[in-house]
UniProtKB/TrEMBL annotation:
<feature type="domain" description="Aldehyde dehydrogenase">
    <location>
        <begin position="20"/>
        <end position="481"/>
    </location>
</feature>
<dbReference type="GO" id="GO:0006574">
    <property type="term" value="P:L-valine catabolic process"/>
</dbReference>
<dbReference type="InterPro" id="IPR016163">
    <property type="entry name" value="Ald_DH_C"/>
</dbReference>
<dbReference type="Pfam" id="PF00171">
    <property type="entry name" value="Aldedh"/>
</dbReference>
<keyword id="KW-0520">NAD</keyword>
<dbReference type="InterPro" id="IPR015590">
    <property type="entry name" value="Aldehyde_DH_dom"/>
</dbReference>
<dbReference type="InterPro" id="IPR016161">
    <property type="entry name" value="Ald_DH/histidinol_DH"/>
</dbReference>
<dbReference type="InterPro" id="IPR010061">
    <property type="entry name" value="MeMal-semiAld_DH"/>
</dbReference>
<dbReference type="InterPro" id="IPR016162">
    <property type="entry name" value="Ald_DH_N"/>
</dbReference>
<protein>
    <recommendedName>
        <fullName>methylmalonate-semialdehyde dehydrogenase (CoA acylating)</fullName>
        <ecNumber>1.2.1.27</ecNumber>
    </recommendedName>
</protein>
<dbReference type="InterPro" id="IPR016160">
    <property type="entry name" value="Ald_DH_CS_CYS"/>
</dbReference>
<keyword id="KW-0560">Oxidoreductase</keyword>
<dbReference type="GO" id="GO:0006210">
    <property type="term" value="P:thymine catabolic process"/>
</dbReference>
<dbReference type="GO" id="GO:0004491">
    <property type="term" value="F:methylmalonate-semialdehyde dehydrogenase (acylating, NAD) activity"/>
</dbReference>
Amino acid sequence: MTATATQTPFVPVLSGSSWQTVETENFTEVFNPSTGEVIARTPHLSAEQTNDVVAAAKAALPAWRETPVVERARVMFRYRALMEQHFEELAALVTREHGKTLAEARAEVNRGVEMVEFAAGLPSLMMGETLPNIARSVDAEAVKHPVGVCVGITPYNFPNMVPLWMFPVAITCGNTFILKPSEKVPLSAVRLAELLLEAGLPEGVMNVAHGDRVCAETLLTHPDVAAISFVGSTPIAKAIYETGTKHGKRVQAAGGAKNHLIVMPDADQEQTVKALSASAFGCAGQRCMAGSLTVAVGEAGDAVVPKLVDYAGAMRVGPSDGNENVDMGPVIRNDHRERVASYLDIASGEGATVALDGRRDFSGDGFLIGPSVVDHVAPTMRVAKEEVFGPLLSVVRVNTLEEALALGDDCEFGNGAVIFTRSGYAARQFKQHFNAGMIGINVGVPAPMAWFPFTGWNRSFFGDLHIQGTESIQFYTRQKVTLTRWPQEGESHHDPVWKSGSGS
Ligand code: NAD
């Protein structure tokens, strides 16, 4: 099948200097989840077409890495200004292809802008270290060099922010970049790249390749690719980490999650109910930091669950595209809606109680499902263990804080965890002992901002250096250490490191 003027357009590929339309029989349809309408087609690049994109990124590397970091950072200053100028357009695009509400889309773009602000400060953060006279007359310095061609493979749930977790830092560090966005939400990625070129980025430094497994695996195994940043589900993250490292690349791969929200009996009930609801049902539950398992300690369950059911039941669920009057938009696809709904039957089949059922009749063709609350969930049930990634909050009831903490030890994932309490002791025990990398104390979604690393633990992250913060600079650079000695004319050339007896 090839595209004609009457067919849905293909999303363009950015390879070096030009945007290209690749018409292919292999593509993914991009939906507007609010209406169910197909709005674009994402081409699946072949291995050969993907190789061309890598060649473009490689060709641009020598000039870009020699461009002073101060000039590279200035591109980010201009980029930030353009993002501000196009802020509403970028947010509307996120809502259009993803379905989250406009308020949520604005929050996402804001987080992306912060990554650009962080990258604009890189001249200070890229400075090296020196130690004069580390041995007699010998000076040592360690400096950061870019690693080369970097690749970002991103998920559908943050079409704007997650790409921005990666390329501003990678590019400002002096690397060239290939973004392979989720085939379900490619439009934000394309717009972000267009604005980056408008900000003055030289051709070939930023590239956008589209596709599925073939494109991703070509990038993962290509000898000219140095580093892979991945965000997506745990099985794919693990596979990406294993394949990428096997092929000699550095890999940071963030995976899925099952985030616990512990409610102590002393927690402020009104605030906690709002925070639980925002955490579980914000972005229709499609966030890796979404709370998906409330752990109610002691009498907290009886106090909080009825209020939560009332609060979530009153949420306005509807098409979000162009509509500010909704609290929750659709999920990404119809099959995903069915998958989320299926967990209600699975949970009740395993003996849990569906306290709020999100399966309602919604008018229109959008992929809508309301918030659900499942009570009396046992930790062994599938709904307590598997990532649902939709607006479904499970409630496990326990008697003590210690029991709540132990649940973290049995969890496959380890992204975020939250406690709601007025007790400093409980908060400290939780912070110190819960088995997860991002902790919230009376904060429902403890997602670190640009300046801090996104520290998933266990099978929520594969690799050593996390995304965001100074760890991302370490990831996108490699160090070079130079020892320097300038002997006086006529001075003998004994190796002064040996002579000083400070080791070899
Ligand atoms: P996904 O794993 O299905 O896809 C992510 C990316 O991987 C896409 O670009 C996709 O095209 C690509 N891909 C798919 N199959 C592949 C394969 N076999 N080989 C190589 N690449 C492949 O994830 P998704 O459904 O788009 O996103 C939702 C998931 O992402 C959830 O599990 C969520 O928790 C996770 N997520 C994690 C974080 C985090 O920071 N830990 C952040 C956002 C999302």
